[in-house]
Design brief:
Layout: E1 7-13, E2 19-23, E3 26-29, E4 36-41, H1 46-53, E5 58-63, E6 70-75, E7 79-82, H2 88-103, H3 109-116, E8 123-128, E9 132-135, E10 144-146
Length: 153
């Protein structure tokens, strides 16, 4: 679900516990399955990036538009880096996947493109290792923790 390309919402908080939140424009999971990368538009995410860099932690929600099946991943820390040309195929794959997801609920490809297209120089990659995971699908299981495999350094 993380790597497939579904709706991504990224959140953090400042020292006073005020939330910051932004829609991601892409997501990927590392080949070994231990690290997640979400992509944000830098120009729209200043407060969120500041909160992440200040150690505000991170919560990311991945949700399928047609079913509302939802996964939430959390981490106490994350790193930010500028997106690079090697990220471009991932961003394009994500956009194509979201166009398919949104088509299932009646939105054309232009809608997804308007919402998610971003020039590479405006994209920042947020990388983190999930520490906890939750089923956030609406219904009786919402909020139930999922097992996160432990990694050894």
């Amino acid at each position: 679900m993380v790597d497939r390309g579904v709706s991504v919402i990224v959140a953090s908080r400042d020292a006073a516990l005020r939330p910051s939140i932004m829609r991601g424009v892409g997501s990927a999971i590392s080949a070994d399955g231990t690290q997640v990368t979400v992509f944000l538009r830098r120009s729209q995410s200043r407060q969120l990036m500041q909160d992440i860099e200040a150690g505000g932690g991170l919560a990311v929600v991945f949700s399928e538009p047609p079913t509302h099946r939802t996964l939430q991943l959390k981490a106490r820390q994350a790193s930010l880096r500028p997106a690079s040309p090697t990220d471009q195929p991932q961003l394009e794959r994500y956009l194509a996947s979201m166009q398919c997801e949104l088509a299932q609920v009646g939105y054309g490809p232009e809608f997804a493109a308007a919402m998610l297209s971003a020039p590479l120089e405006d994209v920042v990659a947020v990388q983190f290792t999930p520490e906890s995971a939750f089923d956030q699908t609406p219904g009786p299981r919402a909020g139930i923790p999922l097992d996160v495999p432990k990694t050894t350094p």
